[in-house]
Amino acid sequence: xxxxxxxxxxxxxxxxxxxxxxxxxxxxxxxxxxxxxxxxxxxxxxxxxxxxxxxxxxxxxxxxxxxxxxxxxxxxxxxxxxxxxxxxxxxxxxxxxxxxxxxxxxxxxxxxxxxxxxxxxxxxxxxxxxx
Length: 131
Hints:
The protein is mostly helical. The chain has a domain at 82-130. Helices cover 40% and strands 7% of the residues. It contains four helices and two strands, in the order αββααα. Strands 1-2 form a two-stranded antiparallel ribbon. β1 and β2 form a beta hairpin. The longest helix has 23 residues, at 18-40. The N and C termini lie far apart (82 Å). The mean pLDDT is 78.
């Protein structure tokens, strides 16, 4: 069995001298002068921005913030295949060059492209009832 050693550390006590105080003041003045020169040249120091979300932390000068809102996505679903549609609706969509998700377009677009609103309503009704 090994004997235990007692290790002790002695703190070095620094003496505060007037020369050390003056040197510290000079260093602070130089730093302030450098900041003023940087702002005179058109370079502005970066300050952390105020944020509306919860602050998570900081990295350097950047504040990391919890996102406030989320982006909502619509599910990307393929349009219904034309062969599943009734013959009259299928023929209408083929003749007009529309896909089976034409009902998602706004009314202005449908009018501009000459869509028959009765057929679009018929398509909607079929899709909601059958599929």
